[in-house]
Amino acid sequence: MKRVLILVSVLLPAGMAVFAQEAEAAVAAPPASVWKYFAAALSVGISCIAGGIAVGRIGTAAMGAMSENADLSGKALPYAGLAEGICLWGFLVALLIMIL
Known about the structure:
The chain is mainly alpha-helical.
C-alpha cells in the first residue's frame, strides 16, 4: 500500500503536468496553469498523507520498543525522520512542476 501511495504521489502529478503542456495548445481546454497548480497540490497532498501514515506507524512501533528497552530511543528517531522525508520529496516534485 505504501508503494502505491508513493508511486501515485510522484507519477500522477508528473503526468498531469505533461497533460497541462499538451492542453495549452487546445482552444477549449482551461489554461495550463490550472492543471499545473492542481498537479502540484496533488503531489504535496498525497505525499503528506503517506508521510503521516508512515510516521504514525513508525512512532507506534518505536514507543512499543522503548517501553521494553529505553536504550532504543536514539535508534528509533532517525526512522521517523526518514518517513517525514516522503513529504519533502512531494514538495520537491511540486516545486519542479511549478518551475518547469
